């Protein structure tokens, strides 16, 4: 092989090698992608509101959260606005939830481990009647106060009729 043939071959092979790399590197990147950092399994959060059929919040309602793997039941209580919250649950477990207030229970709702959703909102509506307080001292729904007056005369007790 002469020196001239070697120089011609080395120039052409360099150009061919550069073209080959330009074409194959993007194809390699598509065939073998890097794992993205946002593919990390995140813990589940479940929250929502417990309401009556008219949409009024039910403070003090209980929400039962059952871990379907270990069968452990966690009890949550709704705050004054009827909201309940639970954070940092295991993402690999199925959960069953239902709400209860004054002996009435809602339908059961489920959160699946197959749902790759970090934030889960489950609202409950219960068929209960919430009475508003008539007394100016009490402003919490569901609580009623009655006032009884005693007369100053001994032996006489007046109780207003209901």
How would you sum up this structure, described in words?
The protein has 162 residues and is α+β, with helices and mostly antiparallel strands. 18% of the residues lie in helices and 28% in strands. Strands 2, 3, 5, 6 and 7 form a five-stranded antiparallel sheet that branches. Strands 1, 4, 8 and 9 form a four-stranded mixed sheet that branches. β2 (62-67) and β3 form a beta hairpin. The radius of gyration is 34 Å and the shape is rod-shaped.
Brief digest:
This protein is of the alpha+beta class and 162 residues long.
Distinctive features:
1 helix; 4-stranded mixed β-sheet; Immunoglobulin-like; 162 residues; 5-stranded antiparallel β-sheet
Give me the Rg, rounded: 34 Å
The major beta sheet can be summarized as: 5 strands, antiparallel
How many independent structural domains?
A: 2
CATH architecture term of the largest domain: Sandwich
Strand content: 25-35%
| Name of the CATH class of the largest domain | Mainly Beta
From the N-terminal CA to the C-terminal CA, the straight-line distance is: 119 Å
The helix count comes to: 1
Q: Which word captures the global form?
A: rod-shaped
Could you spell the SSE succession in H and E letters?
A: HEEEEEEEEE
Write the layout of secondary structure elements.
Elements: H1 3-31, E1 44-52, E2 62-67, E3 73-77, E4 83-89, E5 95-101, E6 104-105, E7 109-111, E8 119-121, E9 124-126
Parallel strand pairs: 1-8, 1-9
Antiparallel strand pairs: 1-4, 2-3, 2-5, 5-6, 5-7
């Amino acid at each position: 092989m002469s020196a001239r043939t070697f120089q011609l071959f080395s120039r052409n092979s360099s150009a061919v090698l550069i073209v080959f790399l330009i074409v194959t590197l993007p194809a390699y990147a598509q065939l073998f992608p890097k794992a993205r950092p946002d593919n990390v399994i995140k813990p589940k959060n479940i929250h929502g509101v417990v309401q009556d059929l008219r949409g009024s919040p039910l403070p003090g309602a209980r929400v039962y959260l059952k871990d379907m793997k270990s069968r452990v039941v966690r009890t949550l209580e709704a705050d004054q606005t009827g909201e309940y919250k639970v954070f940092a649950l295991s993402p690999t477990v199925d959960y069953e939830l239902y709400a209860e207030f004054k002996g009435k229970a809602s339908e059961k709702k489920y959160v699946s481990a197959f749902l790759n959703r970090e934030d889960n909102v489950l609202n409950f509506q219960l068929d209960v009647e919430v009475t508003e307080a008539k007394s100016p001292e009490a402003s919490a729904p569901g609580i009623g106060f009655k006032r009884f007056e005693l007369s100053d005369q001994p032996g006489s007790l007046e109780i207003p009729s209901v």
